Amino acid sequence: MTDIQDALHRAGIALFQDGDVTGALEKLAAALALAETRADIAADLGVVQHAAGNLNEAEAYLTQACASDPGNVDYVFNLARVLSAQGRAAEAEKAYRQAIALDPSHPAAHNNLGNLMKDARRHGEAADCYATAIAADETFAPAHRNLADAREAAGDFGGAEAAYAAAIHLRRDAGTRIRDALLLPVIMGSADQIAASRARMEARLDELLDDDIHLTGPLAEVGATNFLAAYHGQDDRAIQEKIALIYKKACPQLLYRAPHVDQWMAGLEGGPMRIGFVSAFFHEHSIGRLNVHLIERLPRPEFEVHVFSFSKITDPMAARIGAGADHFHRLATDLDAARNAIAAAELDCLYFTDIGMEPLSYFLAFSRLAPIQCATWGHPVTTGIPAMDYFISSRRIEPADAEAGYSETLVRLDDFSHTIPNPCKGMDLGGRSNDQVLVCPQSLFKFHPDFDPILERIMAENPSARLDIIAGNRDNWTQLLRARLDQTVPAGEGRIRFVPRMGREDYLRFLSSADAVLDTPQFCGGVTSMEALAAGTPVVTLPGAHTRGRLTSGIYRQMGYRECIAENGDAYAALVTRLLNEPDFAQDARRQIREGAERIFSPGQSVRQHAKFFARAMFEHS
Predict the structure, then answer these.
(1) Does a structural domain hold residue 240?
(2) Which one, of 456, 457, 469, 465, lies nearest residue 497 by Cα?
(3) What's the 3-state SS for 320-364?
C-alpha cells in the first residue's frame, strides 16, 4: 500500500511540476485517500489546490498537515500563504510569525510578512522584514525588490536605488528594471536633483528600448506608473511615449482589441451612445467628486452610461456614482477580466478619468476597448499611449501651443471641463483666526523647489504670518520637506508648521480659517482649489506652462475673477502680502469669490459641452 501511495504521490508532484494541475490533483487525492494520516501528501495537495485557486480546499489540507506535524516550517509557511490569499491578514501574520519562530532564517517568510505589513500600511515594519529576509539570504531577489519598493515609497531615493541595483544584480528581470528606470524622488530636493533623476530615467529607458525585454503580466511584474515625473513642471510627452513604446514591445498582450470595434458603425445601429467611465477612484476621492455630475447628468436617452469601477470602497459617493449610472460594473483587479467585462458592453466611447494615478487603468488603456477612447486631467499629463484618441481639457486652462505636449488630440471645451458638488453647502465653517494664517494644503510632492524662493519672500515680508502645511502620508516625506525648507526658507523659522492630516469637515474649516491658500506652482490644485474657494478663502496661484500648473487659474477664469492670479513669483508674494495686510482688498476678494462660486459648482455647461463633444467624436469616427 505504501509503495502505491508513494508512487501516486511522486506522480502528482511530477505532473504539477510539468504544469498539469488537474492531473496533479487527481494523483495526490488518490494517494491521500489510501492513508489520510500522511501529512506530507496533505501538505502537497494543499499547495496544488492553492495553485488551482481552490483556497478553501488548500486551507483544509494544509491545516490537516500542520495538525499532524506542527513543527514543519514548510507546512506552516504554505498555510500562511493561503490565509493571505484569502484576505485573512491577521491569521496570515500569525502563521508567518509561527513559521519564523520555527526557522528564524526563512527568507520567504520574512519577505511575505513584509508584504502583509506593507498592505496594512505598517511601512517601517515592512522594510524591517525585507531587510531581515536579505540578512537571512542575501541572494533572495524578491526581498531586494520589495525593499526597493518600500524605500521608494518612503521617499528614500538613494536607498531605493541601491536596493534595485542589488535586485537586478541577482535577477535581471524586466519588471524590476522598469521599476528602477521609473525611480524618482518623492520629495524633490533641488532643481539639480530633478535634472539628474530625469537624466537617469531617460538613460535607463533607452537601455530598455534597446534590449529585448519581455513581460507576461505587467500589473504584477511592474505594478507602478510614471506618477512623479508630472510634478517636475516639464514637458513629459517624450518620456511618456517612450515608456508606452517599451510596454508595447515587451508585452504585446496589452494591445487587446475588443471584437466589436472592427464592426462598429457609428450611429447606424440606432439607440443611445454607449459611454463608459473607468477608474479605481469612484468613491469619496477627488476623482469621484470630479466625475459624479457627468455620470449623473449626461442626457438620457441620448446616452447610455456605464461605470466600470476597480474600487472596493463603499461610501456615499460610491453609492451615488453607482446610482447615477445606467449600468454599474465592479471590475476585478485583473487585466484580462477587466478587458473582457468592458468589451462585453460594446461601448461607443470609453472615458478614462485618471490615467497614471495607478497601474490598473494605465495598463488597461493600452487596449482598444471602444472605437473612441478619451483621457482627461484626473492625472493631468499626456498618457503617451497610442490607443488614447483624445485628451479632454478646457480653453480656460490650456495655453495656445498646448497641442505639442499631448500624444492625444487635445479637446478644449469652452468652459472648465469638470465640476464638483459644493463641499461647503450647508456647513457652518466657523470664523477665521485672529492670527495671520496661510495654508498650503497640497500633497507634499507638489512642492517644487522653485516655490521655495517665493515662500522665503512671503515669510520675510510678513513676520507675523504662520504657514500651515498638511503632513504627508508618510512621516519621512514630511521630514524631507521640512529639512529642505529649513535650508531654503530661513525667514520662516519657527513659523512653518506641519499639521496632522484631518477628517473632511475639519479640513474644510481649516481652509476657511486661513487668510489665504497658497497654490503650488508647476503642479497646482484642482479639487483642492475648488474646496478652498467653496470655503470663501482666496487662493493665490501662479500659472505654469502645462495643464497641471494652470487648473486654479482656469477655475478663476470660469468664475470671472482674476485678481489672485500672479504673473511671476514676485507678484505672487505681493498678492499674499496684500491679502494679509489690506483688509479692503481681502474682503473684496472674498466677496467676488462668493459671488462667482456658482459658476464653478454648477455642472450644466460642463455636461452639455461633454455631450456635444461626444456626439462630434462619433461623427468624426464614422
Answers:
(1) no
(2) 469
(3) HHHHHCCEEEECCCCHHHHHHHHHHCCCCEEEECCCCCCHHHHHH
For 265-332, the DSSP string reads -TTTT-S-EEEEEEES--SSSHHHHHHHHHHHHSPTTTEEEEEEE-----SHHHHHHHHHSSEEEEPP
Residue 257: DSSP 8-state: B
Phi/psi for 244 (5° steps) reads -60, -40
What is the rounded distance in angstroms from the CA atom of residue 191 to the CA atom of residue 196?
Answer: 9
pLDDT score of 269: 65
If asked whether residues 593 and 610 sit together in one domain, one would say no
What is the average per-residue pLDDT within 307-312?
Answer: 97
Distance from the first to the final alpha carbon of the chain: 71
Query: Which residue shows C-alpha cell 517624450?
Result: 238
Mean pLDDT of 23-47: 90
612 and 477 co-located in one domain: no
Please check the confidence at residue 124 and state whether its pLDDT lies above 60: yes
Q: Is the pLDDT of residue 388 over 80?
A: yes
* 348 closest CA partner among 50, 577, 615: 615
- In the predicted model, is pLDDT for residue 622 greater than 80? no
The DSSP element (H or E) to which 376 belongs, if any, is strand 372-376
User: Where among 178, 195, 210 does a domain terminate?
Assistant: 210
Q: What's the CA gap between 290 and 421, in Å, rounded? A: 8
Provide the pLDDT for residue 535: 94
CA dihedral sign, ordered 554, 555, 556, 557: positive
Q: What share of the chain is helix, strand, coil (3-state, %, to 5)?
A: 55, 10, 35
- Report the alpha-carbon distance of residue 606 to residue 418 in Å, rounded: 6
Q: 505: domain range?
A: 436-601
Whether residues 368 and 468 fall in one domain: no
Q: Is 134 in contact with 144 (CB distance < 8 Å)?
A: yes
Is the separation of the CB atoms in 317 and 292 below 8 Å? yes
DSSP 261: G
Full DSSP string of 177-221: HHHHHH---SS---HHHHHHHHHHHHHHHHHHHHS----S-HHHH
Residue 250 per-residue DSSP state: H
CB neighbour list of residue 21: distance below 8 Å, 6 or more residues apart: 15, 48, 51, 52
Tell me the pLDDT tens digit for each residue of 160-213: 999 999 999 999 999 999 999 999 999 999 999 999 999 999 999 999 999 999
Same domain, 485 and 503: yes
| Average pLDDT along the chain | 95
* CATH classification of the domain holding 90: 1.25.40.10
Helix (H) or strand (E) holding 517: strand 516-518
Domain count, the chain: 3
CATH number at 340 reads 3.40.50.11380
pTM for this structure? 0.93
Q: Inform me whether the pLDDT recorded for 1 exceeds 60.
A: no
CA 261 to CA 267: how far, in whole Å? 13
pLDDT at 267: 58
Q: How far is CA 477 from CA 141, 447, 472, in A?
A: 27, 11, 6
**Pair (105, 50) in one structural domain:** yes
Same domain as 17, residue 62: yes
Dihedral sign for Cα atoms in the order 432, 433, 437, 442: negative
The pLDDT > 90 percentage for the chain reads 91
- pLDDT, one tens digit per residue, over 610-621 is 999 999 998 887
The angle subtended at Cα 486 by Cα 539 and Cα 525, nearest 5°, is: 25
Q: What angle do CA 23, 28, 32 make, to 5 degrees?
A: 155
